[in-house]
Amino acid sequence: MTLLVGTQRAVVATADDPLLLEHGRRLDHVEVAYETWGTLAPGRDNVVVVCHALTGDAHAAGEGGWWSSLVGPGRPVDTDRWFVVCSNLLGGCRGTTGPSSPHPGDPARAWGLDFPLLTVRDLVSVQRRLLGHLGIERVHAAVGGSLGGMQVLQWVLDDPAAIDRAVVVAASSRLTAQNIAFSAVAREAILRDPDFRDGQYAAAGVRPDRGLAVARRMAHITYVSEESLERKFGRDRVGAAAGDPPRHGTDFQVEAYLDHQAEVFLQRFDALSYLYLTRVMDYLDLYADPAAAARQAAGGTRFLHVSFDSDWRFPTAHTARTHALLAAAGAETRHVEVSSPWGHDSFLLDPPGYHDVVRSFVEAR
Question: Where are the domains of the chain?
């Protein structure tokens, strides 16, 4: 029987033990929101860490969980067998310290743009501190999709002996110029919103919702495929026949779909976190150091890389590059490309074969 625990919080950095960030800044207070599922074995050897993507949070499983298709009782990451931990990222807006948290010098206002820029290594450092807080030294498996997969790769680089199995899904070890360009336009939409107020919009009682909604609409297009949009919507219109005259505003079904995605997103995410976490992804370049793959291989971690043939945000070439570098360094690594019509978001769904390969890899002796 899976033991379900609600969102918990832990302080993992204090003035006496600050978090030293990769670019030289420090945080004297870091609080982390996290959730766990399952029961920790007496030997503490059944731990699976789930790393979330850009706009995820700690609620990966259970009702409303963003990865409940993969994580839960009887699922490929079976919470009746594994003790699963998922935490909200540093820089996030769902209970973990980030740019919308109170400013230490003036708690009446948010950090805003005074919050230090972060790296994937900083995100992982906080997760590793959380595991230390929980008394966990070694992880049976770390599983992540998109930015979550980047964290898994960084974790194995920073602590090669800590993870037995790494499951890296629809991820990249470095973004292309096109990836960076998409995020740059999204950030610009937020920064140019008149209600952004130099990041101090909460103190003014407003939100840059117009800019954040534009950012979400554009990003969501990159998460799906042309085929999936054509299947769902084609050129169907909203409340109009094919011969009706054109009009301004939302007219096509696909436009209404993007409007809905933006509206839902505004209810659960913060513009500052969007700025910071997209920038984290831009600067990642895991194998800029030629010795990085050898360090990852040295700890004995086994790797499973999954890509999707319709993913044009992080296409299979990204995954193949990471797999090839690790294989050349002597790591035990496997790459599986899964056929799916749903684009990058396939990692959140269940295209044929995807869950089977994850389950067998996590459970194999």
Answer: 8-175+285-363, 179-279
Write down the catalytic residue from 57, 140, 344, 346. 344
Catalytic residue among 57, 78, 193, 311: 311
Active site residue 172: no
User: Is the separation of the CB atoms in 334 and 362 below 8 Å?
Assistant: no
**Of these residues, 87, 101, 146, 225, which one is catalytic?**
146
What CATH code is assigned to 179-279?
1.10.1740.110
- Give the C-alpha separation, 302 to 293, whole Å: 13
146 is catalytic: yes
Instruction: Phi first, then psi: give them for residue 340, nearest 5 degrees.
Output: -155, 145
pTM: 0.96
pLDDT in tens, the chain (365 residues): 555 568 999 999 999 999 999 999 999 999 999 999 999 999 999 999 999 999 999 999 999 999 999 999 999 999 999 999 999 999 999 999 999 999 999 999 999 999 999 999 999 999 999 999 999 999 999 999 999 999 999 999 999 999 999 999 999 999 999 999 999 999 999 999 999 999 999 999 999 999 999 999 999 999 999 999 999 999 999 987 767 888 898 999 999 999 999 999 999 999 999 999 999 999 999 999 999 999 999 999 999 999 999 999 999 999 999 999 999 999 999 999 999 999 999 999 999 999 999 999 999 97
> What is the CATH architecture of 8-175+285-363?
3-Layer(aba) Sandwich (3.40)
Residue 311: active-site member: yes
The residue to which tokens 């609080």 are assigned: 31
Q: Rounded distance, CA 102 to CA 64, Å? A: 28
